[in-house]
Design brief:
Length: 374
Amino acid sequence: MDRRRFLAAGLALAAAGSARAQQHPHPPLTPAPSSVAPFARLREGGAMSDHLMPGEDAQRVADSPAPAGPPGRWIARAALPLPRSEMAWATAWAGRIHIIGGYGEGRVDRTYHHVYDPQADRWFTAAPLPRGANHVAVVAHDGRVYALGGFVEQNRLAIADASAYDIASDRWSAVAPLPRPRGAAAVVAQNGLIHLIGGASDPKEERASVGWHEVYDPTSDRWSRRKALPGARDHIGCVAHDGLVHVIGGRFNTFEYNTDLHHVYIADRDTWETRKPMPTARSGHGLVAYRGRLFAMGGEAGVIANGQITEPRVFAQMESYDPALDSWQRHQPMITARHAVGAAAVGDWIYVAGGGAVTGGAVQSAVHEAFTLA
């Protein structure tokens, strides 16, 4: 075979392989049956429970000061394979949702990687995270899921690990580590770049929020810096929408100091601007783009006195932001109030899986509910 024919044949094979990958973007994965119990307790070694205690159930808050919008509706979906929380948060690619790391089965440094197929309403187990951690920032881009940073102790001891999961081959590989270790950061993909924003870092005894804004370029495997987030915070909601990066809510160091702040990053000017604040100040909430709006759900708050959490609140609110009108409205709250959820939009549904059922990390949930305006 001459060189020209050899190259043509190679290109044809590559094109055929690419077509197959597009037709079948997911490798065979191991089915993972749903958990038989909705809750588990971290301090009891992951002991399962089918209910919350009376005082725990009373932490639910669902009232929103925002004006009423279309209520929408929630339905139950297949529960997670086991109760989990403190994922940061979830991401979707090719119609499936990936939830990575977090607390579960009595530990806080799990390598969990569960994949949800909405069409089949089924969960699968994918290749585990190379290093177990909680509050790992995850985002999907160009056929890969990036897992960045996290903590290896309970909301403490940040790491700089960075890995990329190739969806088609079900394999992880290392990429350039974070310039500075942090967990509970937000991450979005925009214009071929991955923006890692905010979070919290060490020393672990004085864990503090940061406003760091670093950008990863997958083509060069390099990090660079951008203008820092105004108001350092972590456990924030973050989405890229219509050319802007929205950072909404979060906390200054702890959920005692939740905020309703709403900033947008304008990449071509490397600057930040403010937008209408979120009606319910909260942290650990989910945030997704859906039907041209940004929907925020769940979250937590409380006061820490003498090492104990008082005035605990777990939010069920579903509030949405209209970027065109710079305004918020409320919708039907979640059936089960949770924070630190895995939230992602696929098709005409928003899926919200797992999360903490009480303020803090004491109780994980396998609860999985979906919202639609249809």
